[in-house]
Automatic annotation (TrEMBL):
<dbReference type="InterPro" id="IPR013652">
    <property type="entry name" value="Glycine_N-acyltransferase_C"/>
</dbReference>
<dbReference type="Pfam" id="PF08444">
    <property type="entry name" value="Gly_acyl_tr_C"/>
</dbReference>
<dbReference type="InterPro" id="IPR010313">
    <property type="entry name" value="Glycine_N-acyltransferase"/>
</dbReference>
<dbReference type="InterPro" id="IPR016181">
    <property type="entry name" value="Acyl_CoA_acyltransferase"/>
</dbReference>
<dbReference type="InterPro" id="IPR015938">
    <property type="entry name" value="Glycine_N-acyltransferase_N"/>
</dbReference>
<keyword id="KW-0012">Acyltransferase</keyword>
<comment type="similarity">
    <text>Belongs to the glycine N-acyltransferase family.</text>
</comment>
<keyword id="KW-0808">Transferase</keyword>
<feature type="domain" description="N-acetyltransferase">
    <location>
        <begin position="119"/>
        <end position="247"/>
    </location>
</feature>
<dbReference type="InterPro" id="IPR000182">
    <property type="entry name" value="GNAT_dom"/>
</dbReference>
<dbReference type="GO" id="GO:0047961">
    <property type="term" value="F:glycine N-acyltransferase activity"/>
</dbReference>
<dbReference type="Pfam" id="PF06021">
    <property type="entry name" value="Gly_acyl_tr_N"/>
</dbReference>
<protein>
    <recommendedName>
        <fullName>Glycine N-acyltransferase-like protein</fullName>
        <ecNumber>2.3.1.-</ecNumber>
    </recommendedName>
</protein>
<feature type="region of interest" description="Disordered">
    <location>
        <begin position="253"/>
        <end position="276"/>
    </location>
</feature>
<dbReference type="GO" id="GO:0005739">
    <property type="term" value="C:mitochondrion"/>
</dbReference>
Amino acid sequence: MHVNRGNPAGQEVLVDSWPEFKMVLTRPRREVARDPSDYFTNLYTAFYRDEGACRALLGNSHAVDWGQAFQIQGLQDGVYETVRDIARARGLEMETYPYRPLLHPDPPAMPQYRPDKGLSLAPVSPAHAMLLNDTWKFGGNSWSLRYLSLLIRHFPNACLLAPEGTPISWCLTDPLAALTHFYTLPEHRGQHHTRPVVGMLAAQLHARGFPVYTGVLPNNEPSLHTLQRLGFRILPGVFYLLVVRPGFAQSQPASALDSAQDPAPSSGERPHTHST
């Protein structure tokens, strides 16, 4: 994660005990999790060595704000089962997204493909946030626009630009340094545009010392096939993304859209989705 690299997502880290701990939880800092309906910003991650410690910490209302909408991510079945059980007991809604985790074992060996003539590789511009929001499976609302704007401004990304400067293929990374929202406009598919984009972004991540990994939903065979051709390997297990909602009305205040351009929180303020 980026907690020790400026902490642009404003996370903080909790453990069940110190110095010997059995459970690690990251969560948004209090001053960042201001919108109780914004499950993009209200991001938790969990890892445990003892399932009992996992249940105890996740069930502690001082550790997890169950009165807010939030998402929690984890690679262990116990995280899913614990969050499911607590959500049921509290009468909360929970959406489950079980991703297949993929990792590239040797990023420097990934083929670097040149863009087709007339196309150019570049970072994603904040001016393109609306386009990315409109094309994302989890997008289309002001919370997702604010989240994507934060990713574009503060985390590695890459896109392929048409001659007029419009992105036709792109890929971002999230606060966990995972590849997310790699997408090619429908009219440009079938031309392997994803390959130079992912190659450029993988080189950036490797140079910064990050692993090159992502998650793909089980029914997304095109993305899975593309990544495997680039050398990614499917890892065992499931990467869970769980969205918990306390039943808030889904109406959004007018000010939420305006805040998509607000400055991102600093390391004094707080440490997704992952999603493709």
